[in-house]
Amino acid sequence: MAINYYPKCPQPQLTYGLPAHTDPNALTILLPDPDVAGLQVLKDGRWIAVDPLANAFVINIGDQLQVTTLGLLIHALPLALMVMLLQALTNGKYNSVLHRAVVNPEKERISVASFLCPSNYAIISPPERLISEGSPAMYRSYTYEEYYKKFWSRNLDDEPCLEMFQS
Ligand SMILES: O=C(O)CCC(=O)C(=O)O
Ligand SMILES: [Fe+2]
Predict the structure, then answer these.
(1) 101 CB within 6 A, ligand 1
(2) Which residue has the higher pLDDT, 67 or 36?
(3) Ligand 1 atom closest to Cα of 58?
(4) What is the ipTM of this complex?
(5) Rounded distance, CA 102 to CA 33, Å?
(6) How many CA atoms lie within 13 A of 3 on its CB side?
(7) Residue 36: which domain range?
(8) Residue 52 CB less than 6 A away from ligand 1
(9) How many whole angstroms from 99 Cα to the centroid of ligand 1?
(10) Cys-Cys crosslink for 40: which of 2, 26, 47, 71, Cβ 3.0 to 4.6 Å?
(11) For ligand 1, is residue 49 a contact (CB within 6 Å)?
């Protein structure tokens, strides 16, 4: 879990609270600040503001769901959520979302992010059922530990880390 605190910034055009990135984990459950907007997602080449909605979470697909199924992920998930997502075979069919946080000249902002992660030793690979001649595996197999180390060995806004795991 991360608690993100973004102080107010007199010149918000000069910086980001968090630069553009995808989350390295499987799924992120984000509790946005109810009073101050700041999250933006990239859609069709344009940054779109995600305005906070009262009593609502924002759910982000992370890099691991772009590759595989949650069936391979060991961490405890509520059963209903797990069953729902077991069907989310992906091999690139779902994309992890590129997002960033901007700062505000008048108001500070807080967000709380819960990261659902595979265990370090979980082997992540595209599900065989989705691999065929016409649809080859887009990613090689790796452990989450390998991925996570690689992710944090680079700058957050470098090219997507998943590109380094393409097969
Ligand atoms: O503060 C936000 O809205 C985004 C936080 C975020 O992207 C993260 O913690 O990975
Ligand atoms: Fe994020």
Answers:
(1) yes
(2) 36
(3) 3
(4) 0.98
(5) 13
(6) 1
(7) 2-165
(8) no
(9) 8
(10) 47
(11) no
Ligand 1 contact via 4 beta carbon (within 6 Å): yes
**Model pTM?**
0.85
Residue 133 pLDDT exceeds 70: yes
Tell me the residue ranges of DSSP E strands in the chain: 2-6, 18-21, 27-31, 39-43, 46-49, 58-61, 99-101, 109-116, 123-124, 142-143
Biggest CA–CA distance in the chain, Å, is 55
Tokens matching residue 12: 């918000």
Q: Residue 89 to residues 66, 80, 86, 126, 154: CA-CA distances in angstroms?
A: 9, 16, 7, 8, 28
DSSP letters of 28-66?
EEEE--SS---EEEEETTEEEE----TT--EEEE-HHHH
pLDDT of 74 above 60: no
- The Cα–Cα gap between 81 and 102 comes to 30
- CATH code assigned at 119: 2.60.120.330
Number of domains in the chain: 1
Q: State percent of the chain over pLDDT 70.
A: 87
